[in-house]
Amino acid sequence: MVSSMGERYFCADCEHDFIPTEGGDDPRCPKCARTEAVEPADVSPLQSDIWRQWLFVFALLFVAGIAYVLFE
Asked: In the predicted model, what is the mean pLDDT of the chain?
């Protein structure tokens, strides 16, 4: 039975990205056969790099704070 939605999943144990070929509520990784570490794959590239965006914001605020202290 093929999944009708074609939703992608990611196995956190073996880092395998896949579309399940069997139906059911608990998809199984075809590479390592585990079900506990399988999560829906993140399809948004912005979500995977969100920590970089926040790091940039905090670094910019830190540099602005240092400049304020030095030139005040």
From this structure: 81
